[in-house]
Predict the structure of Aspartate--tRNA(Asp/Asn) ligase.
Amino acid sequence: MRTHYCGDVTEALLDQDVEICGWVHRRRDHGGVIFIDLRDREGRLQVVFDPDREEAFASADRARPEWVLRITGRVRRRPAGTANNNLGSGQVEVLAHEIEVLNEAKTPPFQLDDTDVGEDVRLRHRYMDLRRPAMQQHLVTRARVTSFMHRFLDGYGFLDIETPMLTRATPEGARDFLVPSRLHAGSFYALPQSPQLFKQLLMMSGLDRYYQIVRCFRDEDLRADRQPEFTQLDVETSFMDEGEITELMEQMVRELMHDVAGVNLPDSFPRMTYDEAIERFGIDRPDLRIPMELVTVSDLLTDVDFKVFAGPARDPRGRVAALRVPGGASLTRKQIDEYTDFVGRYGAKGLAYIKVNDPTAGVEGLQSPILKFLPESVVTDILARTGAAAGDLIFFGADRAKVVNESLAALRVRLGHDLELIEGEWRPLWVVDFPMFEYDEDDGRYYALHHPFTAPKTDSVEALKAADPESLVSRAYDLVLNGTELGGGSIRIHRPEMQWAVFERLGIDAEAAQEKFGFLLEALEYGAPPHGGIAFGLDRLVMLIAGAGSIRDVMAFPKTQTGTCLLTDAPAGVDNQALDDLHIRVRRPQKG
Amino acid sequence: MRTHYCGDVTEALLDQDVEICGWVHRRRDHGGVIFIDLRDREGRLQVVFDPDREEAFASADRARPEWVLRITGRVRRRPAGTANNNLGSGQVEVLAHEIEVLNEAKTPPFQLDDTDVGEDVRLRHRYMDLRRPAMQQHLVTRARVTSFMHRFLDGYGFLDIETPMLTRATPEGARDFLVPSRLHAGSFYALPQSPQLFKQLLMMSGLDRYYQIVRCFRDEDLRADRQPEFTQLDVETSFMDEGEITELMEQMVRELMHDVAGVNLPDSFPRMTYDEAIERFGIDRPDLRIPMELVTVSDLLTDVDFKVFAGPARDPRGRVAALRVPGGASLTRKQIDEYTDFVGRYGAKGLAYIKVNDPTAGVEGLQSPILKFLPESVVTDILARTGAAAGDLIFFGADRAKVVNESLAALRVRLGHDLELIEGEWRPLWVVDFPMFEYDEDDGRYYALHHPFTAPKTDSVEALKAADPESLVSRAYDLVLNGTELGGGSIRIHRPEMQWAVFERLGIDAEAAQEKFGFLLEALEYGAPPHGGIAFGLDRLVMLIAGAGSIRDVMAFPKTQTGTCLLTDAPAGVDNQALDDLHIRVRRPQKG
């Protein structure tokens, strides 16, 4: 129906006849002539209607925004001084000979150029929202990312293999979406949270290298920027150790960023242990673009009278840490109060600080409500250890280590943005040597920090059984980019006796292990190869690359924070017959 | 952990040291030496252990089938006369220097070489079944097919765009799988039967060219070779008519078959109308490799006394058709009885036939129980019209047209295989000009033959409203290969008034249309472009290309005919808390 996309009509086509199809982006009369900006996926093109072509002129005169037109005409250079250098097609226009109205349109619910439209309206009329060039570009970027992944992994002999969506509920994970079975009354499928066990089974099947770009599901309360269904690039390989896997995946990400975004990542991504990341940044996915670090000062404070510091400093599970903010001395009282509220959300009970006006002038050069509680020598040591310079400010966190780490990690990122301290564009990082287990105080038990199939560093079942659970380190690795976790993976357990031992340390007894993971434990008995893999969160990766403001902006049809599709109005009620067929009934919420 | 795949070790590596990993396929002692055939995804390799390397020899001596080994050794030529020309690595062997047992294995539940293992056992131990080279090859073929599709469609500017899996129930389709919502009590998501409406909405969003290799779901009773979840290649494009779409898709299939299977399909696929396909083959997906056709003989039989023929011959909804079977005169009475039973499954009440021993000898040259009921001139006309030759047999179908078509279509395929009449390897066909509507006698209403969004050939809403529903032809097209429907699609309705009119003809009133399809009808009001597309069944396509016996053999983890995963034992019961969270209860089947 057309010879060219609107955006592809350039000076190379001067004096040629073209046929184009698209949407009326704007129509205006000017000096008895009608101008229509016609828009398609590739761009916009100015079309001119002269009154001497009566029929075409009359149709153009009727046309309104978002009408769909097919136009035949000749490409000509725009008159001098009227070129639009912002458009690829901005040097030319098309003089229309014929016009066909392919469809009319009602007045749009919002202007495509309007950047201040509520997200609910955008989602309800998603077919309009997706006509915006920026939104189309996000989806184009997403398609380029997945296309690159297919090419890269196909090239390295990875097989794209599909795993089931109707599967068995995952114990030990987040809440599953369930699907009632019609043929098996009272039984349910679960939608996969990840293809973890299936990809391990594929390795046990000898398929050697697997990948899949796959939808995953979690029925969790949706925090900002989470979706009930999300997509991951899932990779698994046999006979490779963590060095080989991370090297290959690093190469993929490096080439991907170059190919899709023109970004040059470093030749070798830095590595950092989990312990170091927590110590220096309070978090296992530090944004290395922010030139601030946490500095432990507990040892300097164990003997001070100031209980707020001395208590956590003496507590083995406590921490006192300082965060030097370059130039932070200019922060106002009001700003500091706001940051105090901010860290309060992470459980911090306050936010002590010292403003450093002149570090050479002793306490006279400082300004702080806590100076009176601290010996001068301690203050001097803190200044020296943090490297404070004139004009800096030092914030303190003093509490259980978890609270200090979470609050100062968040504060660090917030300050980095607020004070525009961010350096460099892209800072990737591998975080390694994660703990195997994490104690949950509420449940009074250990959980696997990654998942229960992650291999420990030790090959010895006896060592695993004997060690302090908190001291055990796993063969897991996370790839972090600018403070976002792009992906995470591990070497998996491939010997049945080690898997049993890990279940035991997680407090899963033999009967429960058999009930929940019997098929995996059995498969491990039949010659499982050493294997490992990784999964990347596609939505977040594309969001970073596309520079989108939310993951909803890189998904065609996302859901709201209550899991609703405003366009189709899903979820919805269904008729009783359907429920009868599935052997279920709706249980109405009880009042009162 | 290795330098080469087992299957990649060839004479090019003679006298080099290699490291290989894999499974013990076979182990044997011969003349004091141990031979292990080591297997990985790429093939098998013979490894030799000499007793003078004591440690390696002892480990090799312990090894059993399916143990996982890592071996270091030197490649050498096999002794004269011991080469295995069936293996890529069959000219060489590896003299082992070192061996590492990566994992042991219990005695496998079945021998990988055993071709006579029950499917239940194979599915229960799928990780063993998938170690068979044939099964691995099927999954490799599948990966090559999807890889090709990505490359082809990316190359033509199609965007790989994901559509939701948690969506709204589809009225007018098969039964949906439902997913109870936790956040919206009493509401349900449905898993998509296809992304039909979303891909149309993407066209209305101006995204121009879309594709997706996407999981789809139907909660139907599973006939042989159906799966509750299946995969389709889903394509949609704007501003292309059916000629352009089928041409591009034909090119894709042609290049795909060449690239993946080395098959050369014709430069231009033949086209046939739905009516012609039904007339000549009784079915809209004829296998053109079978050189037999149905021939209508109703007009010759309206006046005969033989009611079995005359009744359907006179009935406007009846049909009498002949099927000439080349060489069929050699069929025995017992065989003919079996075919009679066979067509009975399709509702045929009998299977009349005439054996043609000598077509020049009048009725003397024929053999048939029905000759006595038919005038000789009629018999002569039938012989002439069917082109019967000596040694042929003519079968007859006489009943309602639907019964005749279905039974003779099935009989034709069965005879084609039984009598080895199949000619040529690959015979593609486009079937076009489908009816818009199909009357369902049970429900007493019309249904859309494809789906209710399929455009009619007429652009006139008035013509659509006025015409006999059975006379209306759609802009749908199906691609058939060797009697299998590979894909089907259509140009869609893009004007709201036409969509309303089609709903009306389907007996869907305005209120129901608004309730079920309101968002689509609204989207059509805002400038929907002309658009159309197609969907290919990936599982079946791969099955054809791979020469697999069932679609289960081209899926990594298929389900049984009752929708069970024998490996993971899904679906399964869930605890009451999970059901409470979802606001549902299981309704136990009522006894008696």
Remarks:
- The domain at 135-272+425-431+477-489+532-584 of chain B is CATH 3.30.930.10 (BirA Bifunctional Protein; domain 2).
- Chain B has a mean pLDDT of 94.
- Residues 162 and 410 of chain B are 38 Å apart (CA to CA).
- The longest strand of chain B covers residues 17-30.
